[in-house]
Design goal:
With 242 residues, the chain is α/β, with parallel strands linked by helices. Helices cover 36% and strands 21% of the residues. Strands 8-1-9-10 form a four-stranded antiparallel β-sheet, covered by helices on one side. A four-stranded parallel β-sheet has the order 4-3-5-6. Helix 3 runs parallel beside helix 5. The protein is globular.
């Protein structure tokens, strides 16, 4: 499935337009919150039993996918890195907090790991994080990874500011059990050219990881949080009002 820029942009316009609630005789209604926009990719002719065809990686997009200036992260660290995180107003946890968390009930730990999108961990704290939280972080794809698979393990206070800047643009791509990928490409309030650049970067990255490149892409959709899925397909777009 080869996707050209014109089709991607047209599909993005349609997804945003069809997120508006329209009813004959009434004024168009826009939802009161800034909806996210997701790209959904269905893949074909891949063997997910082969580890080489699975993906578990964080990638940096050309533009922020968040409109706020602070990613939803928790910093698990000690000493200077912990102090820097607190000075930056980030959610933090030290070694004692990690041990205390380990003594909590299972449902509390699950709730804790779901609270944050990403975890940034000081390198020397990783053995304890793996020991206490791996079985909760792993299934959600939130286990901090070292470069080049991820950006969640740091060793210096200066690394923290770099991590924050990156996590405004980072998405987590997982392809493990099903031939399906769904990732956020931005917010409705963002400049459409920036959303398009993020979309294109993801499509090109996924195609590059596939054994048969674009031929492994079966179909793609764009969807706002509350909107209907818009198929990235010329025939589909002809059948709807844009």
């Amino acid at each position: 499935m080869k996707i050209d820029d014109k089709l991607l942009k047209k599909s993005l316009d349609a997804a945003i337009e069809h997120s508006i609630i329209k009813k004959e005789g009434f004024k168009d209604k826009v939802r009161k919150f800034d909806e996210s926009i997701d790209l959904i990719m269905n893949l074909k002719d891949i063997n997910l039993k082969d580890p080489k065809q699975r993906i578990d990686k964080e990638i940096i997009l050309p533009n922020n996918i968040l409109t706020k200036d602070r990613p939803n992260i928790c910093v698990i660290a000690s000493d200077e890195i912990l102090l820097e995180a607190k000075n930056l107003g980030l959610e933090t946890m030290d070694k004692d907090g990690l041990i205390k968390l380990n003594n909590e009930e299972k449902k509390y730990k699950k709730k804790f790991v779901k609270k944050y999108n990403f975890f940034v961990v000081e390198d020397k704290m990783m053995p304890n994080v793996a020991r206490y939280l791996a079985r909760f972080l792993g299934p959600l794809g939130k286990m901090p990874k070292p470069f080049p698979s991820g950006y969640g393990i740091i060793s210096r206070p200066d690394d923290l500011n770099v991590a924050i800047e990156r996590y405004l643009k980072v998405i987590r791509i997982q392809l493990k059990k099903q031939p399906l990928i769904q990732v956020k490409v931005g917010k409705k309030s963002m400049d459409k050219d920036k959303i398009f650049e993020n979309m294109k970067a993801i499509v090109e990255y996924i195609a590059d990881q596939m054994p048969h490149k674009y031929n492994n892409i079966k179909s793609m959709f764009l969807k706002t949080t509350m909107g209907h899925p818009i198929k990235i397909d010329e025939q589909f777009l002809k059948g709807i009002e844009v």
